[in-house]
UniProtKB/TrEMBL annotation:
<dbReference type="Pfam" id="PF01219">
    <property type="entry name" value="DAGK_prokar"/>
</dbReference>
<keyword id="KW-0479">Metal-binding</keyword>
<keyword id="KW-0460">Magnesium</keyword>
<keyword id="KW-0547">Nucleotide-binding</keyword>
<dbReference type="GO" id="GO:0046872">
    <property type="term" value="F:metal ion binding"/>
</dbReference>
<keyword id="KW-0067">ATP-binding</keyword>
<comment type="similarity">
    <text>Belongs to the bacterial diacylglycerol kinase family.</text>
</comment>
<keyword id="KW-1208">Phospholipid metabolism</keyword>
<dbReference type="GO" id="GO:0008654">
    <property type="term" value="P:phospholipid biosynthetic process"/>
</dbReference>
<dbReference type="InterPro" id="IPR033717">
    <property type="entry name" value="UDPK"/>
</dbReference>
<dbReference type="GO" id="GO:0005886">
    <property type="term" value="C:plasma membrane"/>
</dbReference>
<keyword id="KW-0472">Membrane</keyword>
<feature type="transmembrane region" description="Helical">
    <location>
        <begin position="74"/>
        <end position="93"/>
    </location>
</feature>
<keyword id="KW-0594">Phospholipid biosynthesis</keyword>
<keyword id="KW-0418">Kinase</keyword>
<feature type="binding site">
    <location>
        <position position="116"/>
    </location>
    <ligand>
        <name>substrate</name>
    </ligand>
</feature>
<dbReference type="InterPro" id="IPR000829">
    <property type="entry name" value="DAGK"/>
</dbReference>
Length: 149
């Protein structure tokens, strides 16, 4: 039972476990190719990703300039990732909804609106994280607050 569940989760249910070559079949690389195609689609076709790219570079540059510690940097990277993740999922849901329901349908509207709400939530949370983590460092640099002793 547990074995079957693990096989399903790992996607190895149709692979002979004794056959190592089969486990590293080209399918793994093909999946990576599909993921990269998704990235390229997002960077080329979605106008929001251009804004997100610039914002991410600015925030990362600011974080490095402020010399925040490793934990803070990890939190900033996670916050940036949340925005990208929600935007990617939103674009995927939008495409699926457009395919399934090109005409107006209340459920299609719910699907798109909820996906878009997830993006908004991610953006708000990330802005708050940015303010909480970077805010004190910026104020310190500007000599508005004293550096912690
Ligand atoms: N098939 C549909 N049925 C019902 N409502 C829809 C449908 N398509 C879009 N909508 C409504 O229009 C809104 C905007 O949809 P749209 O597909 O234009 O997304 P968008 O947020 O403008 O994203 P993008 O600019 O990336 O295409 C949706 O949030 C939803 O409320």
């Amino acid at each position: 039972m547990f074995r079957r569940l693990m096989d399903t989760l790992m996607g190895t249910s149709r692979i002979d476990p004794n056959d190592y070559a089969a486990q590293i079949s080209p399918n793994r690389f093909r999946s990576l190719g599909y993921s990269l195609a998704g990235w390229i689609y997002m960077l080329r076709r979605q106008k929001n990703t251009r804004i997100m790219t610039i914002a991410s570079i600015v925030v990362m540059a600011l974080s490095l300039w402020l010399q925040i510690d490793r934990l803070e940097l990890a939190i900033i990277i996670l916050a940036i990732t949340i925005v990208w993740l929600t935007e990617f999922l939103n674009a995927g849901i939008e495409a699926a909804v457009d395919l399934a329901s090109p005409d107006f349908h209340p459920l299609a509207q719910v699907g798109k609106d909820v996906a878009s709400a997830a993006v908004l939530l991610g953006v708000i949370a990330s802005i708050l994280v940015g303010i909480l983590v970077l805010g004190p460092h910026v104020l310190e640099r500007l000599n508005i607050i004293a550096a912690p002793t």
